[in-house]
Amino acid sequence: KWRRMFWEGRLLVHVELYPPDDKARDLDNHIKVLQAGLERAQVFQNDSQIDTLLVERKEIRSQSCAIVKIMETKDMKCYLQNNYANS
């Protein structure tokens, strides 16, 4: 779901990347492009706002995609506990 919001504070960004195939890819290259796009779309002012960046390579999908979750860092502890408590 897309919800337009301009983030101004310190951020946690969680990215799930779903590749189209099993070809070797550098995750950091995808993240650089994604961050630039989010900044250009004015989702946040500058990628220097990101304090925590979680990136996951997920399963292959024929229609590749990236799912991006953004929140202020004050909500980080609760988010991490709910999503990674059993990791």
Give structural notes.
This protein is α+β, with helices and mostly antiparallel strands and 87 residues long. It contains two helices and three strands; from the N terminus they run βαββα. A three-stranded mixed β-sheet has the order 2-1-3, with no helix packed on it.
**What is Rg?**
14 Å
Q: pLDDT below 50 for ≥5 consecutive residues: which ranges?
A: none
| Intertermini distance | 26 Å
Inertia-based shape = globular
Q: What structural category characterises the helix and strand content?
A: alpha+beta
What is the helical fraction, as a range of percent?
A: 25-40%
What is the number of helical segments per DSSP (H or I, 4+ residues)? 2
Major β-sheet strand ordering: 2-1-3
- The helix/strand series, from N terminus to C terminus, equals EHEEH
Topology record:
Elements: E1 11-18, H1 27-40, E2 50-57, E3 65-72, H2 76-84
Parallel strand pairs: 1-2
Antiparallel strand pairs: 1-3
